[in-house]
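DEPOSITED CHAIN:
***
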Amino acid sequence: MLPAKGYAAHDAHSPLVSFSFARRVPGPRDVQIEILYSGICHSDLHQARNDWHNSLYPMVPGHEIVGRVTAIGAQATKFKVGDFAGVGCMIDSCRTCPSCADGLEQYCENGATLTYNARLRNSDELAFGGYSDLIVVDEHFAVKISPALDLKAAAPLLCAGITTWSPLRHWQVGKGQKVGVIGLGGLGHMGIKFAKAFGARVVMVTTSPEKAADAVRFGADEVLLSTDKAQMKKHAGSFHFLLDTIPNGHDLNPYAALLRRDGTLVLVGALTELTPPLVGGRLIGGRKSIAGSAIGGIAETQEMLDFCAAHGIAADVEMIDIQQVNAAYERLLKNDVKYRFVIDMASLENAA
């Protein structure tokens, strides 16, 4: 086993602290990655604090991982030592079900293995995430990171990036379409960048007028204040596609009214109950659709990273040291980040 060091939550109420554990020695098709940067996703906070009532402790969070390959298994061919590599939200799947066969490992019908807060496949051993100095994964579940990308700003692409890229691609967002991105946070700012790059007319839909300048900087053509009834009425029935990145339960009815006939609203943020109930007539009257989307498969994630490298797209990040992670969690609760925290894992060397 390989000695490893990270930061872990040991229960739902205590701060993350320094934690020593072990990783497996690389197997025939594994890659060992020295972690350079680890993004902080809002779901890290939810999982660490057991908000979804499924947390396993001790927990080393982190599924936005960028690093350097330091060792490869004897049969591994995807990487060479020294390459930059990334690991996202999953590290394994059954690889035999129809979803896996279609390259949609995130929808594995036997359950994808998450990067943390999960047990390794066919094992009781816990999976530990990216708030650590190294990780060992099957090469299939690692992706290549172009040196043309700013590595620290590339880390959030492994979750925030692919979570917004996948539905925009699946629903073929592009030129001639009016697209709304609801919520300007870690996901929303990437949704704007991608939708604009795909050629759509992009509208940022927000409750926060102070975010308008940033939305325009990211590529939004217009900002719609959802608390302004006159603005909402003006835009009613006009959107081809809405990407809803709000992370908590909320009222979909005002947003459904924005869709044109055959328009689609896709949820990528809210995992909890949506309230109040959705009025069916808002959908039936225009053959509108409400859908959901998770992250992308491995091939799709690689496609997204290559597109970002070719078009100079990355996340807007605020760098922190690992010792600041608990303070960062408190700031996340207040939406006080522009737009993704990324941990410089070199700071782990100084961790107590």
The two ends are 22 Å apart (CA to CA). The chain has two domains: 2-159+316-350, 161-292. The chain has a mean pLDDT of 97. Residues 2-159+316-350 form a domain with the Quinone Oxidoreductase; Chain A, domain 1 fold (CATH 3.90.180.10).
